[in-house]
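Why Precorrin-3B synthase? Reviewers of the renewal asked for a concrete example.
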Amino acid sequence: MSDSLPRSGPRSGPDACPGAIQVHQALDGGLARVRVPGGALTSARWRAVAEAAADLGDGGLELTSRGNLQVRGLAAGAEQSLAERLSVAGLLPSVTHDRVRNIVASPLSGRDGRGVLDVRPLVAELDAALRADPALADLPGRFLFALDDGRGDVAGLGADVGLRGRTVLLAGRDSGLRVAAGEAVAALVAAAHAFLAERQKEWRLSELDDGVNRVAARLGAAPPGLPAARPVSWGPIGAVPQVDGRVAVAAAVPLGRLDRAQVEVLCGAPTVIVTPWRGVVLPDLPDESFLATLDEAGLATDPDSPWVGVTACVGSPGCGRAHADVRADAAVHHSGHPSHGLPVHWVGCERACGSPAGEHLRMLATVDGYVTT
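Here is what the prediction returned.
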């Protein structure tokens, strides 16, 4: 199971999306998902997750397409200890709202001089507003908020409710509403309430029949319905100068999986930002020397790396539905072959967990081998 941005039709069953408390039982043990609003963790919080994964799980961390983290291989009952550790670290501030704190944000906002506003304060404000509203605990675990500073990087991820600059987005489309920064969070919360008022069993706004128009009408808007942005194929890679004279370094994580040694390497950064493209950004560094450390650890620091744009679900043996060990097969296929062009996503079954937003090639494992879709 992966934190995907699904492109499928209406759902009929209950939302079983995992969290830090509600754990999914996979073949390799319990799977917990740690919500990280905006993807940003201080070094202390990164260390807390790293130690929990080492002590309670398999030691590695998975990065999801919403900038969240997953801990795999939990023993039965270990979720209680995990929740306690995350709570102490400030990563589980609400038991009731754990699974609804899905917020992606422009990873370099306020640092590289792009965008029309710094969305970092809005991430904290929106997270607090969600947790303070008892009704919003009923949002499905796959409902997604996006805060785009105007550059268009996360606006194209198909979030249910979002912001691009001053424009309020509904299912990734222009709602017709324009708001100042100080009004943005209230508008996004109102849109989430409007979705709850309209939904029956739908998990996503895009699954609600005529959902954009219905939600917009409750907000007093007449949406033009235009897409806010095209999906970005991959996130920042390499060194990025900051406006304050410091440097951010960024890397793609091969197949979205950090092993124990790579998790430990990232403990040396003051801040770790997990991106929706299954990469990391380490901001506020004095120079770009940490880039070499990431490269030595096996992360993709070159835009021409064969791992840029390549993702995969967990496959077998972790998932009982998978027809193949897709990560191992992807590693063999892409080694030494740059994947530029369309992103490539390897999946072990037709559920296609973790599929990226936008157009991409899908390598689908079947009982008869792989097919490309």
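The longest strand covers residues 279-285. This is the kind of structural detail the renewal will allow us to pursue systematically.
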